[in-house]
């Protein structure tokens, strides 16, 4: 067997962090070697994720643990993610980021000195395809609105996926107030719904004379994101700089 890649998970105690930990336990070429979460410091990360103990003890912050892994995965919060990226880059570590709140302009402006940074608004392969299909449809249906629906614990609105979709359709999202609900992005309205029972859902409705076209994707379980996360982990070390969006490593 080839050498296993050592993976660190930042935000290990969150819903996505726990899913990543469980998914890594099923992979042969990837091994969890580090984890961070200030709310669960010194706990065994395997027990925290609901699987068997694995001996990986959670550190409080990323600077304490950054050298324990080859590649880092970040599912933390918008207010700390930029600092986490800086820590990874200072240590020469590739990083996959699933935390919301990063614009494409910020990502592409990063100076990484050849270190791979892959920022992904949505890891579900179906969601990536939804966005690509919407980009094609917009050429023929230039009137569109986006409705995104997420669980009520999601801290940002609109979602990163909705913003990414609007950008693919040519909208300027930089000038709009962060966290707007029902915001107008260069004529493309985004409507955000936050309710218990939802996971991650989005539809783009296109209108034309006498017809409607709706493109929709639903993630019914966070397991839907894991194939994309594992793919991103395996691909990030092949990058020589910052990349925004999973489509770029899917060949789309």
Give a written overview of the molecule.
The structure is a single chain. The protein has 252 residues and is of the alpha/beta class. The chain folds into two domains: 5-123 and 223-250, 3-Layer(aba) Sandwich (Rossmann fold); 125-220, 2-Layer Sandwich (Dihydrodipicolinate Reductase, domain 2), CATH 3.30.360.10. Helix content is 29%, strand content 25%. It has helices spanning 15-24, 45-48, 62-65, 81-90, 104-109, 125-138, 160-168, 226-236, 247-250; strands at residues 5-10, 30-36, 71-74, 94-97, 117-119, 144-150, 183-185, 188-194, 200-208, 211-219, 242-244. A six-stranded parallel beta sheet has the order 2-1-3-4-5-11, with helices on both faces. Strands 7-8-6-9-10 form a five-stranded mixed beta sheet, with helices on one face. The two termini are 31 Å apart. The mean pLDDT is 92.
